[in-house]
Amino acid sequence: MSAEAVSCTIKSPVALQIGDAVSDSSRPGVYITDITLAEPVNIQEISFKNYYTAYLTVRLQQREESSAKWVTCLRNYCLMDNPHAEAGSHDYFSIYRQQMLTEPDNVTTVRLILRQPSSEWLNFSIEEINIYSCAKEDSERDVPAWLSTLTPVEEPLDLNGLPDPETVSSSIQQMWALTEIMQASQTAASIGRFDRLARGQLSITEKQNIILNGILIETELLRDLYSTDREDLSGLC
């Protein structure tokens, strides 16, 4: 709903009476009130205060390309459950476009047809009439440019070309298990070789390999010591 009611002109009610208005003293049961809008309006809401009106019918004059036509958007809307009782006679009402029989767009004139069949009340009308237009939407102005580039939460990610997650997970588990088996196998082989050496169960070739590895290790240690001594002597000189 707009913050302010649209500009309009509310004309005086016109009574509809059967028979001669001069000689017939009975009270009229129908009043018509026309409301002229300053410019064509897309109506969102019509609000008013009731004063003993039992039923309301609303007709709209809509502007078209070449002419204007009248349409009924609300028919015999009940304002008082019992026309002979007070209930609802002074209530406030709002009629929204969702309740109307046709879309109230490009409206130039609103005609209110008031009806009160009961003879209990001397007068009836509606007061404090306000008409509100639909709010104008300008989403491009309100939304920052950087926000429009974000991916919506509901939009699924493009996973084309990527492997199946379950297949990748299974492969990783298999690789991890294979790595554990290889590490355990290497440790067991190394321990088993030195255990058999202590028991004298190694073959001649395995003994030669162990001796050769020991000689190589000792040679590397002697080479490191010799290099360190030469550096220390050169520092003293």
Task: Give the tags.
237 residues; alpha+beta; Jelly Rolls; 2 domains; six-stranded antiparallel sheet; three-stranded antiparallel sheet
Account of the 3D structure:
It comes from Anabarilius grahami (Kanglang fish). This is Nicolin-1. 32% of the residues lie in helices and 30% in strands. The protein contains four helices and nine strands, in the order E-E-E-E-E-E-E-E-E-H-H-H-H. The model has no long low-confidence stretch (mean pLDDT 77). A hairpin with a 4-residue loop joins strand 5 and strand 6 (68-78). The chain has 237 residues and is α+β, with helices and mostly antiparallel strands. It is rod-shaped and about 135 Å long. Strands 1, 2, 3, 5, 6 and 8 form a six-stranded antiparallel sheet that branches. Strands 7-4-9 form a three-stranded antiparallel sheet, with no helix packed on it. The protein has two domains: 8-136, Galactose-binding domain-like (Jelly Rolls), CATH 2.60.120.260; 169-236, no CATH class.
Helix content: 25-40%
Cα gyration radius (Å): 49 Å
Cα(first) to Cα(last) distance is 100 Å
Second-tier CATH architecture of the largest domain: Sandwich
Shape: rod-shaped
Q: Please give the domain count.
A: 2
The largest sheet is: 6 strands, antiparallel
As an assembly, this protein is single chain
In CATH, the homologous superfamily of the largest domain goes by the name Galactose-binding domain-like
Q: Give the H and E element order.
A: EEEEEEEEEHHHH
Number of beta strands: 9
Summed up, the helix count is 4
The CATH topology annotation of the largest domain reads as Jelly Rolls
Q: CATH class of the largest domain, please?
A: Mainly Beta
- State which percent range the strand residues make up: 25-35%
Q: How much is the average pLDDT?
A: 77
User: Would you identify the regions where 5 or more consecutive residues have pLDDT less than 50?
Assistant: none
Instruction: Return the structural class.
Output: alpha+beta
